Amino acid sequence: MPPEIVTKSPEAFSESTILSPAPQIVVLLIDDQIIIGEAIRRMLASEPDVIFHYCNDAAQAIHLAEEVAPTVILQDLVMPNIDGLMLVRQFRSNPITCNIPLIVLSTKDEPKVKAEAFALGINDYLVKLPDKIELVARLRYHSRAYLNHQAQTAALTAQAQTQKLEQALQELRKTQSQLIQTEKMSSLGQMVAGVAHEINNPVNFIYGNLKHIENYIQELLDLVHLYQEEYPQPSTKIQSYIETIDLDFVAQDLPKTLSSMKIGADRIRQIVLSLRNFSRLDQAEMKRVNLHEGIDSTLLILNHRIKQGITIIKSYYDLPLVECYPAQLNQVFMNILNNAMDALLEDSGKAHKQITIQTELTNSHQVQVRIQDNGCGIPLEIKNKLFDPFFTTKPVGQGTGLGLAICYQIVEKHQGEIEIGSGPEGGAEFIIRLPVQHFS
Ligand SMILES: Nc1ncnc2c1ncn2[C@@H]1O[C@H](COP(=O)(O)OP(=O)(O)OP(=O)(O)O)[C@@H](O)[C@H]1O
Ligand SMILES: [Mg+2]
């Protein structure tokens, strides 16, 4: 006999679908006896939300189940081609059908058989032929449970996917800001290091030779004095030249001029040292450094802004050397100090603009740097957004919103913490805590 596969759509089906939004119950019956198939079809004919599929060939059951996606499967246990329990095993091991409720519809009413079927994962067991009301109730119950489970799984999957997407987006933004930062740092660092290197050599010539010039000039002046002593009556030509150049003034002023040149050259050397200190391109590895040197170098680079009317108050504790990536930490100080200066300098009406930098050893393993300003402060509602990449309150073109995000990443990389507090007169405060040493 050829396999019989029947799909029944109850007459009222389409109408009831329109009237009732209730989920459809899709039943698949596998039974070799066509008479049973027909009996069940009749029982379900008056149920508008039931779609009925029937298959009398167990060999095709899995394939048909994959195709019609039933919400509940009814299956016989005793069939000519396949053992019913084997079919249960197949349904349960197939990833597409493994969760579909399975009701055994059998002539056998033996507890042992039932127990075996339940052990294999069936959801229910009915003895042929069941009462129509009971059958429909069970089909509905199992279908709903299955549909609810499916909906929950779908919601959870969607939620997990949303979370994954959000995470990926955050990662992307972090990577993007890191890329911009690396690019900014490496080009700024390279430029600073390059300029510092180029200035370093000539300024050393000047500084090194000033000492000799000072000696030579002193010797020449001594010689002039000697001449004046040995030849007290110079010729009129020499006498007139001495008056023209005002020899006494030259002799008095020359050492002063030289000394101010020496101070100037020394200042350039200090700036060059700070620039090199700031960029520290040579130090790609962790180094133990004096944090105060980094802060001072950064302040020196920002001197043009400080000179616009900001008082810097430093309160440095006697800190131990801190193991860190120095150029990166300098970038943290730079970003925070720049923000403080932005806040102070944009308020032209403020009379006394001040930044306080305080360092401290909080315990033997941790140092703390607090940078406070008495500027406009940070409103409570934006406090938790400050470290987000691209968050800025500055006008377009003035702020990228990356400064603090970069600080956060760098401090995190140093296994430290960065916290926002409040400065004097409602200003802002940034507190950075860093471990003194890293144990890998
Ligand atoms: N000291 C401060 N006082 C007041 N607001 C501050 C201070 N520091 C940061 N902010 C606020 O935090 C925001 C984010 O700072 P962040 O340094 O990340 O970006 P930005 O300064 O706007 O731009 P840039 O990338 O150029 O640094 C600023 O736009 C500002 O609103
Ligand atoms: Mg900034």
**What's the arrangement of strands in the largest beta sheet?**
1-3-2-4-5-6
SSE string, helices as H and strands as E: EHEHEHEHEHEHHHEHHEEHEEHEE
Which CATH architecture of the largest domain? 2-Layer Sandwich
Gyration radius over CA: 44 Å
Percent in strands: 15-25%
Low-confidence stretches: 8-21
Compute the average pLDDT.
Answer: 87
How many DSSP H or I helices? 12
Largest sheet, in brief, is: 6 strands, mixed
**What is the helix fraction of residues, given as a range?**
40-55%
Number of strands: 13
Coiled coil: 155-185
Protein name: histidine kinase
EC number: 2.7.13.3
Catalytic activity: ATP + protein L-histidine = ADP + protein N-phospho-L-histidine
Structural write-up:
With about 450 residues, the chain is an alpha/beta fold. It contains 12 helices and 13 strands. The chain has a 6-stranded mixed sheet with strand order 1-3-2-4-5-6, with helices on both faces. A 5-stranded mixed sheet has the order 8-10-11-13-12. Its EC number is 2.7.13.3. One of its GO terms (molecular function) is ATP binding. InterPro entries: CheY-like_superfamily, HATPase_C_sf, HATPase_dom, His_kinase_dom, HisK_dim/P_dom, HisK_dim/P_sf, Sig_transdc_His_kin-like_C, Sig_transdc_resp-reg_receiver.
